[in-house]
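Why Alpha/beta hydrolase? Reviewers of the renewal asked for a concrete example.
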Amino acid sequence: MDKKQTAATVLIVPGLREHVAEHWQTLLEARLAKVRSVPPLETDKLSCAARVEAIQRELEQIDGPVILVAHSAGVLMVVHWAACYDRPIKGALLVAPPDLEASWPENYPTPDSLRANGWDPLPKGRLPFRSILAGSSNDYLASLDAVTRMAQDWGSALVNLGAVGHLNPASGYGEWPLAEDFIDDLDH
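Here is what the prediction returned.
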């Protein structure tokens, strides 16, 4: 299989999950020629600062234009990174961000634990690069209204993906070809 060529290097920023082979980001990474992924943290897994530094370390390894592709808490990591660093970014696809004000299922960190680890307050200023924020009408981690407010705060183009849950394997989504369409849009 030929890998898809992009002008920019795609940096995949996963959320708090461990490596999941059937996740759309993992599958996307296998299909792209110019791609890197922020590796999972071994320690301080809930530390926002450690996550931001992991993004920066990966970006320091990339020459040329970059497109960020973030999912879930990875979206929040990108927004915190953008508030700390000023490297030019060609664009960002930000998918299914969690709402720090929402009540989440038991198997997720609590909003209080994330606040204690530096995730809140979430930067609200316009991102210094073009971004597409994709949300779901039935995501259990964030309402579409909350995602709409984030898009307004960050100056992102909002895309309502419909009823796709959290756009992860647990919601029935592994393969997600639409991601490549959004990347193509950001790459041109």
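The CA atoms of residues 75 and 94 lie 5 Å apart. This is the kind of structural detail the renewal will allow us to pursue systematically.
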